[in-house]
Amino acid sequence: MKIVAQIKQPIETEMERFEKKFSNSMTSKVALLNRITHYIVNRKGKQMRPMFVFLVSKMVSEGVVNERTYRGASVIELIHTATLVHDDVVDDSNRRRGFFSINALWKNKIAVLVGDYLLSKGLLLSIDNGDFDLLKIISVAVREMSEGELLQIEKARRLDITEDIYYEIIRQKTATLIAACCAMGARSVDASDEEVERMRLFGEYIGMAFQIKDDLFDYGDTQIGKPTGIDIKEQKMTLPLIYALNHCTKEEKKWVINSVKNHNKDKKRVKEVIAFVKKTGGLEYATKQMKQYQEKALKLLNTYPQSTYKDSLELMVNYVIDRKK
Description:
By secondary structure, this protein is mainly α. Helix content is 76%, strand content 1%. The protein contains 15 helices and 2 strands. It has helices spanning 3-8, 12-25, 31-41, 48-60, 67-90, 102-128, 132-158, 163-188, 193-217, 230-233, 239-246, 250-262, 267-279, 282-301, 308-322; strands at residues 95-96, 99-100. It has a two-stranded antiparallel sheet. A hairpin with a 2-residue loop joins strand 1 (95-96) and strand 2 (99-100).
């Protein structure tokens, strides 16, 4: 059995129900909008985020989910989808998960409006049902994601990212949404504030490990859906590169920064930077940091009694680290 199917097993029924509810939550009176949302629903990814919501809610409540859990999962997925649609516009990207992106098929103007529509649908789903505690969790996440993106853009211009700033960027950009999923799952079944915070942290640690793994892919030789060296071409300062810059001579540092700033379209030069980062130990260091976040996440899980939901969450943590793409 594939690992994702294995993770999903204890929440199979909930995920089936969720998919119907999620499709319904997107409907509109505008035919064009329905055509686009239908296109989105039929090209969904692995749906890891809703899976986090259901697995956490069932683990902390010993198997209980309720309508609030379904709404929480739908809000997360609506907001996540909205940010992906907007991201493709910002990045001028024509593909998403191997298919054409919304902006490639319907142009930027429509893509931005569709993203806005999904965002408002998510907010209204919470407001109409009085889920203000859930709304607060997701609103904080949206704010942090925007701040993280802007912080990264600001720092990319000057290439002066320290390791601490890097962690702050990935915490906001990537980890905050997974943290929101886990907090949402616990909050939806009325867990205590302390437990909600514990699950939020659990999600944050997984998100940090997930992003570092993504950064490592940029230096790998395997096909992972994004060409090797793309982060360097986009002048993104990732952990392996930051480590290499902090552990080299002044001349080497000057050469790397000049390469990333002025020669990032030169394939030969990008390959040389990748080789330099590998030689300086950037990959080993990033892998070590990623595994520390994995261990922190597993440690928090170990405070819960054994259950199939806990087993699935453990699988999920390890899958984040071991995945090939």
